[in-house]
Every structure is written in C-alpha cells, then in structure tokens.
User: What shape does this take?
Amino acid sequence: MKRIYLAGLATLGVAICLGQSAAGAIEEPAYPEGYRRWTHVLTGVSDARFKRYEGMHNIYANPKAIEGYKADGAFPDGSVIVFDLFEVVDQEGATVATKRKFIDVMVKDSKRYAATGGWGYTEFLGDSRTDRAFTQDKAMVRCHACHVATPGRDSVITRFKD
Ligand code: HEC
Assistant: This one.
C-alpha cells in the first residue's frame, strides 16, 4: 500500500514539472542551418547612429518567407528570415565586411508565438550556433516591440525586389 502511494506521488511530481515547463517557457527558434544558400533579400549599411546595428547587414529568406514577401497578406507558418550583420572597414573608399557580429532570426509559427503576432525572435552571437544574446522572454519583447511598431507588413520591415 505504502509503495503504491509513493509511486503515485512520484508520478504526480513528474506531471507537475512537465506541466510547468510546457506552460512557462517560450521555445527558442532553432539556428537557421544553411541560410547562406537562401534567397538574398537585400543588403544595408548603417553607421554609428544605429549603435549595435552599425555595420553591413545581408538579409536572407527561406522559400516560405519569399512567398510571404511576394504576397500581400501575412507570411505563412514556416517562414524564416535572417539578418546577418558584419563589422566593416574602409579600404581606400570601398566598404568591406569583416567579422560577423551576430545574426538575428525571425521564425513564423502562429500557434507557438501567438502572443507576438506569430513571430519568434532570437539572436546568435558571432559565428556561434548556440550562444544567444538574450534570454527568450527578453528577445520576444525587445525585438517584437520595434518590429510591430515600424511600418512594414506582418511585422516584417523590408520588402523584396526581383
Ligand atoms: C530598434 C528597432 C529594432 C529592433 C529592436 C530590432 N529590429 Fe530587426 N529590424 C529593424 C529594422 C529597421 C529592419 C530593416 C533593416 C533594413 O531595412 O535593411 C530590421 C530587420 C530585421 C530582419 C529582416 C526582416 C525584416 O523585418 O525586414 C530580421 C530577421 C530582424 N530584424 C530580426 C530582429 C531580431 C531577432 C531582433 C531582436 C534580437 C530585432 N530584429 C530587433 C529594426 C529593429
């Protein structure tokens, strides 16, 4: 009898732990493997006025996100967009990209990220596939606040030109 009671308590404990992690944590978007082979959306160069975004950035979109860029409505689930930022040097008048500073990633999953318009946000530092600049709850607030407030479509600021 006592053994059954203890086993029951252990099961209950596991159930509570699982329930808490499922309800509490926001799932981190995965590292976007292979994004350098995706479609290039545009390149931009920003000076020191853009603070941590100073440098040269290239933006890439996977095939789903390209559908979103080309359509008038929302981006479909499975869209992934990457903002790839480099430090720059001036070489006799040419602006040349050097070290990667970080990559910013947006992933569309309308159920998982319902609270932020269906977009999950994350930032990987340098060339790392694991080091992230922000805890997930911080990234979601910080990134989305600016994206949702900047004119664009479905929180995506850039436009794609063929
Ligand atoms: C202060 C405002 C601001 C914040 C904060 C911000 N972004 Fe952006 N983001 C921009 C702007 C502006 C662009 C467009 C850049 C361009 O026109 O080349 C952009 C572009 C992007 C893009 C390319 C898709 C698009 O919307 O055009 C991604 C991906 C992205 N940001 C991810 C992130 C992530 C992840 C974070 C948080 C770690 C973040 N951003 C925080 C302003 C912001």
